[in-house]
């Protein structure tokens, strides 16, 4: 069927619209399935079909993860006498691609709100994973119709029978109702499209009411400014309208509306149930926030669509340029990234050890790694980052409360209690690993809430864990201890009072701010010993003895010594060659430039880099 004969945006009867998304655990084949659907519906031709059409950013393609969700409009004709029993005719399928990672749960939940149904995609060789469950619960919470699909049935290791049963039990249907696909070969995908038409409810909305549209994504484009993706719920949005963002009351001139199919196509308007984009000349995604409701200023809606949430950073770290001259470049780069990332926060900070940099806030560790990688790659920066930490609440005896996002802001004085954020974590793993996982969670101060068998040999374990423990190497350890079989999902669930202390590292009595960490009392000693030992190896001997101490307040908990040497560069130059002496002295000065002074102690820049890149407070492995 040709695309041009399909119903046009703004003139599409809601009864033929089907809005759906695909939810899956990472790598279960969501992007591949999306590509296959684009191809089958004729939206992307065979030849131009490049792998993973929807994942636009290079990093996304390389890492194989999807960060930004997008909506694609696909016309689909159901033929008479199809096996699935779908009503023949031409339909408009709007597919919303959702990010799969836990850091982006908020974006997932907003894109779910834009749909009537979710395809729950599960790898037929892996079975249900933690994010399958987490996303399913989100989808059920949003009242979506669920279509269970087992993908990768072409794999020799696929176990269709076992996992179809698992999936059917989870969703509450018969194993026969689980659809089978291979996104790679295309088997089963046509049937899936027909089932979408048959099973997914058409959108309902009031065409005559004032316009209300939900923003489910917003992306910065260098040439066009912010492109905002919306789902129209009531009324219509026309390219002539002036629109209003309901959370802020800000008014914007509309420059363009349209649909993605799969490139942007301008339209006169978008009507009830349709998804598409709008462009207003806004230059910053923070002015067009995911979750906000758009209305038309000439005829305003009074009630926004439910549940707008401001994304709050949960993990903080200092980012410093290795070359101090790059500071302005780093600032510009962060500003540019923020145009496209409403959740990224940063503010300038100075560190005695590292110089000028920024304290940045992220949704989680993956968000942090991606941001750092983009800074290094797209802006050619060499960065050093301090160990990440979460946000602590320090309650003083005099009743004041300090919000601490940086160990160096940890207050002095009489502390009544320190509260730390906790998460509800779900871990799915083969039953053989129950003991190993329990041990790890115990070590990370976890509390077992409950455990269920999903099938004979797979369990779901539910824990509360301090977010600070998860933020470091928990996931890496979980993966390595379970040979990659365990999967993890977590969500913020409040906070708790804990025995936390700030450990300072001192060189010759001077604290080195970059190494201070807030850790649990029981882990303080090992952190101190580890850091002191490491620095002893990394800092060259000086002309005087340098004590390295780890301390909680005034109490020293670990100590190492760097013994003195007298490095007399002129020692070899007895005799009188003055030019040679001068050259050696010059050379020594050069070397000193890359040294940082901590009190009287010269520390090579590399020592900071090495000490920070190989250690978080939990003594974790290097983060690439
Ligand atoms: N054999 C086989 N491989 C598949 C199939 N579908 C996807 N894959 C492969 O599985 C890997 C992951 O697929 P993606 O489509 O990137 O997975 P995804 O769910 O989009 O991953 P995220 O975007 O990270 O959430 C890729 O190497 C695909 O080529 C399938 O049906 N059969």
UniProtKB/TrEMBL annotation:
It catalyses: GTP + H2O = GDP + phosphate + H(+). SMART domains: EFG_C. It is found in: Cell membrane. GO terms for molecular function: hydrolase activity; translation elongation factor activity. Residues 15-204 form the Tr-type G domain. It is a peripheral membrane protein. Its main location: membrane. The keyword Cytoplasm does not apply. GTP binds at residues 27-32, 151-154. Pfam families: EFG_C, GTP_EFTU, LepA_C. It comes from the Bacteria. Its EC number is 3.6.5.n1. It is an enzyme of class 3 (hydrolase). Keywords: Cell membrane, Elongation factor, GTP-binding, Hydrolase, Membrane, Nucleotide-binding, Protein biosynthesis. PROSITE patterns: G_TR_1, G_TR_2. InterPro entries: EF-4 (IPR006297), EFG_III/V (IPR035647), EFG_V-like (IPR000640), G_TR_CS (IPR031157), LepA_C_sf (IPR038363), LepA_CTD (IPR013842), LepA_IV (IPR035654), P-loop_NTPase (IPR027417). The keyword Disulfide bond does not apply. PANTHER family: TRANSLATION FACTOR GUF1 HOMOLOG, CHLOROPLASTIC (PTHR43512:SF4), TRANSLATION FACTOR GUF1-RELATED (PTHR43512). Required for accurate and efficient protein synthesis under certain stress conditions. May act as a fidelity factor of the translation reaction, by catalyzing a one-codon backward translocation of tRNAs on improperly translocated ribosomes. Back-translocation proceeds from a post-translocation (POST) complex to a pre-translocation (PRE) complex, thus giving elongation factor G a second chance to translocate the tRNAs correctly. Binds to ribosomes in a GTP-dependent manner. Belongs to the TRAFAC class translation factor GTPase superfamily. Classic translation factor GTPase family. LepA subfamily. This is Elongation factor 4.
